[in-house]
Amino acid sequence: MVNSQASGVPPAPRSCAGCGGKIADRFLLFSMERYWHTRCLKCSCCQAQLGDIGTTCYSKGGMILCRSDYIRLFGHSGACSACGQSIPANEMVMRAQGNVYHLKCFSCATCRNRLMPGDRFHYINGTIFCEHDRPGAALLSSHLPPLQSNSVLTDQKVC
Length: 159
Prior knowledge:
Layout: E1 14-15, E2 22-23, E3 29-31, E4 34-36, H1 50-53, E5 58-60, E6 63-65, H2 67-74, E7 93-96, E8 99-102, E9 120-124, E10 127-130, E11 149-151
């Protein structure tokens, strides 16, 4: 194989995976086994130009994401905080205290009832309890720290 640069012939322009146009720019990005104009490699959620905000990007479910949006959508690991299984990019999730859960996994640790949007719950030491099964509900002591109370909200769309 002949090196085209050694012979004085410039390399053939590459096509951008984002816009399909030829890349004649001085700089280009290579991500997910494809080439991109620097202006075309963008986060699917916030539209930030990924070459401008760092050296890494994330891909899941056909989306290209910046680090912030990946963590916001899928948690630090991309896995459910309850079962540890992967969360598909198109699946709706529940969130509590920065953790992400499958809908079916977001349930009371005591009675195992699934919590639905609008249900009140308590998040204590990383464990979810429904309003009825809150530990210490029968104990009214000023020595206990206040319990964190939340209402369940689902993410209606990914971005």
